[in-house]
């Protein structure tokens, strides 16, 4: 018996469909979400005056910023466990998904989130307004994306490949 291809079963349009993560909309949403997660602690502490209390404490500035980054990473890990672990458990009951692919996707989301978190902490520390820090974080990554995509096509192949590999959305 011959195996039916998707075209013969009436699924010719299935190849044209793309998921939200393949379109980049999910990645843009995570960039916006992770940037917003990192802003509130620094800007609120500066606005309320709690930063002066922290600055006079025996803890060093590096340990304060490191603690904020660690707290943000814990929040990102919990988001990944819920957001990627839940669907994996459901898929496990219905099929046999590849655990390696799920772990690679989770590590990619965590690495991208840590990058957005670090830049959000940076812009939150130099701005007293949460809105300004959020917009600076978001538009700085947008400028990185636009720069990479506009410069890479005019470079030689080896350099263009390196720039395309550094593209934060093309993963």
Describe the structure.
The chain has helices spanning 20-23, 25-48, 50-55, 61-94, 99-126, 130-151, 157-165. With 171 residues, the chain is mainly α. 15% of the residues are buried. Mean pLDDT is 76; it is low at 1-23.
The structure class reads: mainly alpha
What would you report as the Rg, rounded to the nearest angstrom?
21 Å
Share of β-strand residues: under 5%
Round the mean pLDDT to the nearest integer and report it: 76
Largest sheet: none
Give helix % range. Answer: over 70%
Could you say which overall geometry the principal axes of the C-alpha atoms support?
Answer: flat
Low-confidence stretches: 1-23
Number of helices: 7
Q: Would you report the number of β strands?
A: 0
Order of helices and strands: HHHHHHH
Instruction: Tell me the distance between the termini.
Output: 39 Å
């Amino acid at each position: 018996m011959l195996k039916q291809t998707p075209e013969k079963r009436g699924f010719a349009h299935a190849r044209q469909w793309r998921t939200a993560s393949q379109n980049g909309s999910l990645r843009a949403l995570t960039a916006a979400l992770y940037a917003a997660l990192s802003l509130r602690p620094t800007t609120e502490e500066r606005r309320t005056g709690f930063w002066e209390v922290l600055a006079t404490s025996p803890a060093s500035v590096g340990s304060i910023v490191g603690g904020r980054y660690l707290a943000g990473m814990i929040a990102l890990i919990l988001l990944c466990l819920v957001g990627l672990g839940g669907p994996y458990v459901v898929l496990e009951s219905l099929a046999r998904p590849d655990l390696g692919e799920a772990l690679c996707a989770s590590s990619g989301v965590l690495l991208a989130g840590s990058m957005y978190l670090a830049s959000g902490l940076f812009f939150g520390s130099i701005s007293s307004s949460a809105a300004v820090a959020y917009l600076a974080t978001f538009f700085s990554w947008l400028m990185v994306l636009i720069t990479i995509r506009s410069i890479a096509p005019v470079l030689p192949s080896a350099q263009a490949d390196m720039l395309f590999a550094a593209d934060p959305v093309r993963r």
